[in-house]
Amino acid sequence: MDTDTDALAALSCAEGQVPKASAAGWVCADDINTDIDTDTLASLICADDQVVKATATGWVCADDIDTDTDTLAALTCADDQVAKASATGWVCADDTDIDTDTLAALICADDQVVKASATGWVCADDIDTDTDTFAALTCADGEVPKASATGWLCGTDINTDSGGDITGVNSGSGLTGGGMTGVVTLSANFAGTGSATTVARSDHNHDTAYVNEGQVDSITSAMIRDSQVSSADIATDAVGTSEILNGTILGTDINPATTITAAGYNYESAQTRYHSIAGCSCRLKNLEMRASNEALWTVDLPNGATIRNFRVFLYDGSGQITCSLHSGTFNNGLTLATVDSVDGAAWHWTPEATLNTVVNTATNAYAVKCISDGNSSDQPVGALRIGYTVPRPD
Length: 394
Known about the structure:
single chain, mainly beta, Jelly Rolls, five-stranded antiparallel β-sheet, 36% strand, rod-shaped
């Protein structure tokens, strides 16, 4: 059944008119020829029920073949049936509602609400499980809602944003980290060895580990190894008498090549006496002999000096020579020290006698006496040496 009634065959047009499409369908209208193309519908003379169809060569008359057989107009359905698509086209069928879960079927009591359940939508009481709402809060002026362990509470508005103009935090010398946005962190940029993560104060000290320059008593004797301090480590005039304990410097502490002057506390005088015998090879019998085998020399010493040592330079061929230092007179003097030659040692200095006797020239004279127990002609005396010190001048 052709439900398409919009056909040119139904038109009855006056001479010169042509079919024209309008909102209501095809209508007859004057042929206002704006088309200089001579291929126009006006030249067509179609048979009854034919229609104008476009072809590759232009418009032609052709049979009206309805290719649309799937039309709703052909359906005649019973009451309440609806058109449903099927594999063969549109067919009439019962209106089967497969959606039984509809709100329209629910009749709920006052204040109930629709809630989803495992079986579909149901009516249920409106149980408000959210009691943590701002609506229940009554805050004083200036307070703000703040979260707590028990819910939202009113609290003082502590403004942690000072509203400053800092736009970034950069790490300076000795620091790492920083940033331009968000929460930033600065950390100390540790260098060298060690594992501590703390930063020391600028006025700290390391008494147990380091020596602090300029700190009083920062260096103790326990820190100095033996023989590690040389003269180059001591400033000129840095060590005076106040830094030296009495009795702590011995003869072994003094360099023999060092010159000690009168500015020192005590010193061995440059006037150490050498009593030489003329020719340094005279025999005892030729040296102011007081007896057949004795000789005597007078010794001049400064008053107040302290005699420290005494020895004699002589030749021993056979026998022995004994020399002694006396105070007083030759016959009634006091023997202060005695030295003996080494038997058969030829020329030599006798062992040194040490003493600690203060010279008093007001009451005493001083002399050296040598006595030979053998042939004096084979025992010459060459020199005497008496060492003494004098007090430091004021």
